[in-house]
Amino acid sequence: MSSESNMEKHDEKSTATSVQEGRQDDVDKAYEFAKQHAVGPLTEEDNKRVLRKIDRNLLPLMIITYTLNFMDKNALSYSANFGLLTDNHLVGNQYSWASGSVFYLAYMVSQPIVARLIVRFPIGRFVAVATMLWGAVLMTTAASRSFASLMTIRAILGCMESCINPAFIVISSQWWTREEQPLRISYWYLGNSIGQVCGGLLGYGIAHITNHNVPNWAWFFLIFGAFTICYGAFLFYYLPDSPLNARWLSDQDRAMAIERVRSNRTGVENHVWKWSQFKECVLDVQCWILVATFFLDDIPAGGVGSFGSIVVKGFGYSALYSTLLLVPLGVIQAICILFGGFMTRRFQNIRTWMVAGCQIPALIGAVLLYTLPRENKRGLLGSYYIVQTHGIVGTLTMSLVTSNFAGYTKKATASSMMYIAFCVGQVVAPQLFLSNEAPAYKTAFLAAFVCFALCILFIIALRFYLIWENKRRDRLAAAEGETSHSDDEFLDLTDKEQKLVFRYVL
User: Fold this and answer.
1) Is 2 left (phi over 0), alpha (psi -120 to 50) or beta?
2) Count of CB atoms within 10 A of residue 9's CB?
3) Secondary structure in 3-state letters for 163-178
4) Measured at the alpha carbon of residue 376, what is the angle toward residues 374 and 382, in degrees to the nearest 5?
5) Rama region for 93: left / alpha / beta (φ>0; ψ in -120 to 50; rest)
6) What DSSP string describes 35-46?
7) Contact, 16 vs 493, CB < 8 A?
8) How far is it, in rounded angstroms, from Cα 297 to Cα 301?
9) DSSP label at 22?
C-alpha cells in the first residue's frame, strides 16, 4: 500500500474521530436528532409515505418561488416593447446593461455573502425574507424614468434574487436522496418554463391595460411585485428550515425524513462556517469543471432572458405578437427538463451524458440562426425554439452539486461558485447583442454555437475524471478491508473526508 493511501485513510479517520470526541457545535444538527429519535432502516411503505408528504408540501413552494424569481427578473424584457425604453431615455447599449449586465453583476458580487448567510441563518426564513424584499424592489421599477434610476433598481433586485438558487440547491440535498434529486430539481427548475409561459400570457394581457396615469410597461412591475410580496409572507410561515422543524411532519416523520437521506452522507443542517471546507471546495477540480460548464451554458440562456422578445420581434413579428410567441419557449424547455429528470431517475449515472447530448440540437439551432436568411422568419423562429433544448444543463449540473459535494459549508460554497459563473454568463450575454447588428445579432448566435461545443467537451472530461476518482477510491477501500462507518453520516464531513465510502454520481 502506498504512503499516499495510508495518509488519506489516516486523515479520514482522524477527522471523524475528532468530531465524535468533541466540538458538537461542528456536527450537523441532524446528528443529535437522529440519535434521539432512532427509527432504524425505513420500510418501503414508510419511505414512500414520507416522500409523498415531502413532495406534496415542499415542491409546490419551490416551484412557485422559482416561477416568480424568473418572471420578476425578466419583467424588464416583457415591458421593453411597450414604452419602457422611451420613458427611461435608453439609447445604444443602455438596455443591455440595465436588462442583464448590472443585474447579474450585483447577483455575482452577492454570492460570497449569500453563501455565508445560508450557513448562518435558518434557510427557510432566509428564502422568505429575500422573496418579500425582491418583490418590494421590483415594484419601485414602475417609478423609474432614467437610465441611472433603472440601473440602481436592477442592481438591488439582483442582490435580492441572488439568494434563491444557492438556497434551493442546499434545500434539495436536505430532503431528497441522491437518486431522487435530479427529478426534484427538474420539478422546481420548471419554474423557469412556467414563468416563461405565464409571463408571456400575462404580458399579453397586461399590455391591454389602459390607464393615462400609469404607463403600460409599469403595470408589469406593479402586479408581479405585489404578488411576490404576498407570497413571500406565506413562505415565512410555511417553508421549513430543514426536516427538523417542518410543521407538516410529525416528530416520527421528521426522524424518518432524516433517516431517508442518511445514505447521502452530505448532511442536513449546520450553522458553523468551516474555512477548511471552503478551501477544499475552491481547490476541487470537479467544482471548477462544473463552474465552466454552467458559465458556458448561461451565455446563450442570458440572451434569451434579456433579448427574447426583441429577437422574436426582429424576425418580423409585431410587438404584441412577439410577446405571445415567447410562450412556446417555456413549453419546450419544460418538456426537455422533465425528460432529463425522468431519464436520470430511470437510468443510473447518465447525467453527464444527458448534459452533453442536449447540447447537440441547441448547437444546430444556433448555427441555423446564424446562417438562415432574414426573410425566412418561420425558420428563424423554429431555430430559436430548438436552442431551448439546452435547458437540461442547469438542472443536471445543479443535481451533480447536490449529490457530489458533502459538507454544509462546502455545498454552500459550491452552490455560490456555480451562480457566480451563472452571473458572469448572464453579464456577458447581453453585451454580445450589439445594437449595430440588430435584428440579426450575428455575434450573439456565433457565441452560442461556440459555447454549446465547449460545454460538450467540458462535461465529457468531467465524466472521465469522476470515473477515475471512483476507481481510485475503490482501490483504497479494497486495501483497507472491512471498516465500520456507521453513525458518521451526519458528522458534516466532506466528500474528500469520506474517501472510503463516498462515491460520485456521473
Assistant:
1) beta
2) 18
3) CHHHHHHHHHHHHCCC
4) 110
5) alpha
6) HHT---SPPHHH
7) yes
8) 7
9) S
3-state secondary structure of 31: helix
Q: Are 296 and 455 in contact (CB under 8 A)?
A: yes
275's grid cell: 474555512
Q: Give whole-number Cα distances, 462 to 220, 254, 287, 329, 499, in Å.
A: 42, 36, 10, 29, 18
Residue 206: partners with Cβ closer than 8 Å, 6 or more residues away: 78, 216, 219, 220, 223
Contact 119, 435 (CB under 8 A): no
- For the chain, give the number of residues: 506
Q: Nine-digit cell at 72?
A: 420578476
The pLDDT tens digits of the residues spanning 115-151 come to 889 888 999 999 999 999 999 999 999 999 999 999 9
pLDDT at 12: 45
Residues 147 and 90: beta-carbon distance below 8 Å: yes
- Rounded to an integer, what distance in angstroms lies between the CA atom of residue 99 and that of residue 465? 38
pLDDT in tens, 161-195: 989 988 998 899 889 988 888 889 889 988 888 88
d(CA 19, CA 24): 7
Report the C-alpha gap between 7 and 14 in whole angstroms.
10
Other beta carbons less than 10 A from residue 409's beta carbon:
25
Contacts of 440 (CB under 8 A, 6+ apart): 314, 374
| Dihedral angle, C-alpha 228, 231, 237, 241, nearest 10 ° | -60
> What's the pLDDT score for residue 482?
61
Report if pTM > 0.70: yes
> CB–CB of 70/333 below 8 Å?
no
Tell the residue number behind the cell numbers 471523524, with chain if given.
16
Cell numbers 441611472 correspond to what residue? Answer: 148
**How far apart, in whole angstroms, are the C-alpha atoms of residue 266 and residue 406?**
4
Rg of the chain, C-alpha, whole Å: 23
Residue with cell 419557449: 329
State the Cα–Cα distance between residues 439 and 51, nearest whole angstrom: 49
pLDDT at residue 7 in the model = 45
Q: Which three cell numbers stand for residue 432?
A: 454580445
Question: What type of residue is 409?
Answer: T
Instruction: Output the CA–CA distances (angstroms, integers) from residue 13 to 16, 109, 230, 279, 405, in the order listed.
Output: 5, 37, 49, 20, 19
Q: What pLDDT, on a 0 to 100 scale, did the predictor assign at position 270?
A: 66
> What does the pLDDT read at residue 77?
79
Measured N-to-C along each axis, helices 164-175 and 123-140 cross at an angle, to the nearest 10 degrees, of 150
The parts of the chain modelled with pLDDT lower than 50 are 1-23
Q: What's the pLDDT at 267?
A: 62
Interacting residues of 114 by C-beta distance below 8 A, sequence separation 6+: 162, 163, 166, 167, 416
pLDDT at 62: 95
Cell of 150: 433603472
